[in-house]
């Protein structure tokens, strides 16, 4: 059984048994990479927990065929991820948590713009993956919501709906790379999400200095020219709109004191 994603600007189908994607005639994309539970245990609160073997599927560089040359020129890439339903022990289904590797072409750790397609998500982010994580946010998002993670922040995507899969798209830098070592050295990010009666609660990770977690809802990023339209459609309408993703230095002033 698959679910079409045309409302979000791309002719593709998301599959859940098994996890993966198929593409329409005018859309190209890679075979999805499957992240298995054993691959992400080092970032979980309970590395020995039970959960689905296939935790999520990720396809990086999905595009309409006629957009590929423009995306390559602008060093942009669109990724799509779908999660399994269920839990990882006491935690919701979630990504490992990482920081984006510095891109050679920009000299910056790139930002990332998420758009939720299905299910409910929490985009968790923290300023630093150091003893003091700085400001920490949990952004609660549903279908159609956009969430922007600024350059250099540690972050993870968490399913807030254990009874249904979570699917989202994201604009990324074409030279994307995920750095896990700093997160794994501290046994995860600064806050662990835990499921309690189908609600997510938070537990502080003692490998970080005590701090505060702010739970917020998405806001319009009008300063970046982002609208309420599907983010892939926004690229079709204006290919320069997301240049701040691959060239965050061009929007350096907007990242100072950024609030998600």
TrEMBL record:
UniProt GO cellular component terms: cytoplasm
Keywords in alphabetical order: Gluconeogenesis, Glycolysis, Isomerase
One Pfam family here: GPI
Biological processes annotated in GO: gluconeogenesis; glycolytic process
Pathway noted in the entry: Carbohydrate degradation; glycolysis; D-glyceraldehyde 3-phosphate and glycerone phosphate from D-glucose: step 2/4
EC number: 5.3.1.9
Span of domain Glucose-6-phosphate isomerase prokaryote: 53-210
Lineage top rank: taxon: Bacteria
Entry's Gene Ontology molecular function annotations: glucose-6-phosphate isomerase activity
Name of the protein: glucose-6-phosphate isomerase
Organism whose genome encodes this protein: Enterobacter lignolyticus (strain SCF1)
């Amino acid at each position: 059984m698959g679910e079409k994603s045309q409302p979000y600007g791309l002719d593709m189908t998301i599959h859940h048994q098994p996890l993966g994607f198929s593409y329409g005639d005018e859309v190209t994309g890679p075979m999805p990479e499957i992240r298995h539970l054993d691959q992400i245990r080092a970032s979980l609160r309970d590395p020995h927990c039970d959960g689905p073997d296939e935790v999520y599927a990720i396809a990086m560089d999905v595009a309409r065929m006629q957009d590929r040359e423009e995306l390559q020129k602008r060093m942009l890439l669109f990724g799509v991820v779908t999660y399994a339903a269920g839990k990882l022990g006491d935690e919701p289904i979630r990504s490992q948590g990482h920081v984006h590797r510095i891109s050679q072409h920009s000299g910056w750790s790139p930002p990332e713009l998420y758009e939720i397609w299905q299910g409910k998500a929490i985009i968790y982010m923290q300023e630093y993956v150091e003893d003091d994580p700085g400001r920490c946010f949990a952004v609660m998002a549903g279908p159609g919501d956009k969430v922007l993670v600024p350059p250099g922040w540690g972050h993870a995507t968490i399913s807030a709906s254990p009874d249904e899969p979570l699917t989202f798209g994201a604009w990324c830098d074409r030279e994307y790379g995920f750095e896990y070592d700093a997160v794994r050295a501290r046994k995860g990010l600064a806050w662990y999400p835990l499921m309690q009666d189908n609600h997510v609660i938070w537990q502080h990770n003692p490998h970080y200095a005590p701090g505060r977690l702010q739970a917020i809802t998405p806001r319009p990023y009008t300063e970046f020219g982002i609208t309420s339209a599907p983010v892939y459609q926004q690229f079709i309408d204006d290919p320069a709109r997301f240049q701040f993703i691959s060239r965050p230095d061009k929007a350096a002033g907007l990242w100072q004191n950024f609030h998600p």
